[in-house]
Amino acid sequence: MFQQHIVIDGLQYSHWDRDYFLMLKASGIDAVHATLVYHEDARATLTRFAEWDYRFERNSDLIMPVYQVEDIKKAKELGKVGILFGAQNCSPIDDEIGLISVMRQQGLLIMQLTYNNQSLLATGCYEQKDTGITRFGQQAIREMNRVGMIIDMSHSAEISTLEAIDISERPICISHANPTFAHDALRNKSDTVIKALAAKGGLLGFSLYPFHLPNGSDCTLEDFCQMIAKTADMVGVEHLGIGSDLCLNQPQSVLEWMRNGRWSKQMDYGEGSANNSGWPDPLPWFSGEDGMQNIYQGLLKTGFSDKEAGQIIGGNWYDFLEKSLTPMLSLQ
Amino acid sequence: MFQQHIVIDGLQYSHWDRDYFLMLKASGIDAVHATLVYHEDARATLTRFAEWDYRFERNSDLIMPVYQVEDIKKAKELGKVGILFGAQNCSPIDDEIGLISVMRQQGLLIMQLTYNNQSLLATGCYEQKDTGITRFGQQAIREMNRVGMIIDMSHSAEISTLEAIDISERPICISHANPTFAHDALRNKSDTVIKALAAKGGLLGFSLYPFHLPNGSDCTLEDFCQMIAKTADMVGVEHLGIGSDLCLNQPQSVLEWMRNGRWSKQMDYGEGSANNSGWPDPLPWFSGEDGMQNIYQGLLKTGFSDKEAGQIIGGNWYDFLEKSLTPMLSLQ
């Protein structure tokens, strides 16, 4: 019963237009964690929020913003898709601890401490050396805990990630990455990280970005679900969700902004390479409106119960958001 | 029965520290419209919000933010002072229409279209020529109406103010100014403006800033209440409130920032002059913790009923905020 479950995609960065919102609604997804910014500073982040406000105004029949977890249930009831915002880097807070509460009030619910590079807070997964959590990073984690902004370490390096899990007084997430046992890549996560994440109540969203998958764009639904099953055996099903990293209909310029920001004059190919510099081909069984339903069916075939499959396609994300988004008064 | 009424001061810009919050609480004020910024742009406005977030964290036993009108009743119940934010200029939106909804979401409930000078939206009261509402200003008024951000014309010129009243689909306010019949000053308002404001359901907050008053710092409580009575005779009591413009404990540098911003290399003395360039002496019967209670008693002595005095010291502001702060879906 796919439609009885709350369905949440824990990360997308598609081209957000009305056609796409219609597709999202048709897909049965109740809420999606949308990347608001990659490298935008505080001021530019306001413009991204403004652009979304205008999308909400023009598409109020299809989408609505999510500020608290209850908004996701409201979206489901209203037949709309809830949009919850996250940043893939800590650039929205500039160098200012006080902007964490400001951005949370604005609706930034999730923030990565780093993208691929060193940030003011921690180290990204493509750096040679991993500083762990910086002095500012330790303050930022405490403040994010206090105001109910979720720490996301998807693009961070191993030591930084382990330290964030340890320092944070609340569970954190890796919204979109896969285990290295399934595909060894700098962006994927070791068993050590996944176990530490789960031990503290955190959540891992499985990615459908081909560079994170065994056999890339040829990865089968069966292989994808087997990867989930093996991870469930390791840490339990309640820590697992989907964070598809779906980037549909985006031009090459967006890929270059993701990878290069303003920090490099040379092309950085990220997970690609000079002769494979474009967007990877999307997975045929995921990129259409049946994507989440296909995963649900695949999970059932792999041996998960209906309840477990429901947890993985959204229930676990919902529970994680429910315990993560309220301010933590004890830290005041 | 002073304490039975909701008491709202419709504008203050005092030095916001714990001692002052203790004084505010002791004064019986349930909510105060606090000036967040004078000339700060969007980015600097975020820092002002961040500073307030930290004040709320450190003084959570005394103050709380107001995002909706219900928060004022909540503050009264909890014995706290609700803080509602306004800008004395349109600088927080830079040149970007989309920042109106962003700033509203952040908690900016009230915005003046101009301070004393020409702005991108309208003309300030100290300019020689009054353009009226600009092209951008017309769009901004519509957007402010839509999202529930209150238009304040306290520092604006006459034609601009009349046009704003006319163009706006919702009532607007003049949060802190007095009638020119009581004291003729560029910052005060003509009978024409006050009548037009009231005819559209707007609100006038009487100022206690000495430069706006007959006899300046020597203005008596009786004269102040007579001014209110005469205005009530003209437009009815339901359009009248208090917007004290109280600026206690602020250094000269703040006065210079108010008056000069970044726009002048020469000193502009605003309502003062070269040989009267400092803060005016506050009114002895208003600047202490009995200020609002003194006004209440003065209004009773002047002949207002208890109900009417209660409306003037806060009830009318409450009703005005109640009808002004909800988004206006019909404009979506």
In terms of topology, how is this protein built?
2 copies of one chain form a homodimer.
Chain A: E1 8-12, H1 18-26, E2 31-37, H2 42-58, E3 63-65, H3 70-78, E4 81-87, H4 99-106, E5 108-112, H5 135-147, E6 150-152, H6 158-167, E7 173-174, H7 191-199, E8 203-206, H8 221-235, E9 240-242, H9 252-260, H10 291-302, H11 306-324
Parallel strand pairs in A: 1-2, 2-4, 3-4, 4-5, 5-6, 7-8, 8-9
Helix pairs in contact in A: 6-7, 8-10, 10-11
Task: Give an overview of the whole structure.
- The structure is a homodimer of 332-residue chains.
- With 332 residues, chain A is α/β, with parallel strands linked by helices.
- Chain A has a single domain (2-331), classed as Metal-dependent hydrolases (TIM Barrel).
- Chain A has helices at residues 18-26, 42-58, 70-78, 99-106, 135-147, 158-167, 191-199, 221-235, 252-260, 291-302, 306-324, and strands at 8-12, 31-37, 63-65, 81-87, 108-112, 150-152, 173-174, 203-206, 240-242.
- In chain A, the strands form 2 sheets. In chain A, strands 1, 2, 3, 4, 5 and 6 form a 6-stranded parallel sheet that branches.
- In chain A, helix 4 links the parallel strand 4 and strand 5.
- The longest helix of chain A has 19 residues, at 306-324.
- Chain A is globular and about 45 Å long.
CATH superfamily of chain A: Metal-dependent hydrolases
The helix-strand sequence of chain A is EHEHEHEHEHEHEHEHEHHH
Structural class of chain A: alpha/beta
The oligomerization state is homodimer
Radius of gyration of chain A: 18 Å
CATH architecture of chain A: Alpha-Beta Barrel
Taking pLDDT < 50 over at least 5 consecutive residues as the criterion, the unreliable ranges of chain A are: none
| Top CATH class of chain A | Alpha Beta
Number of domains of chain A: 1
Indicate the mean pLDDT of chain A. Answer: 96
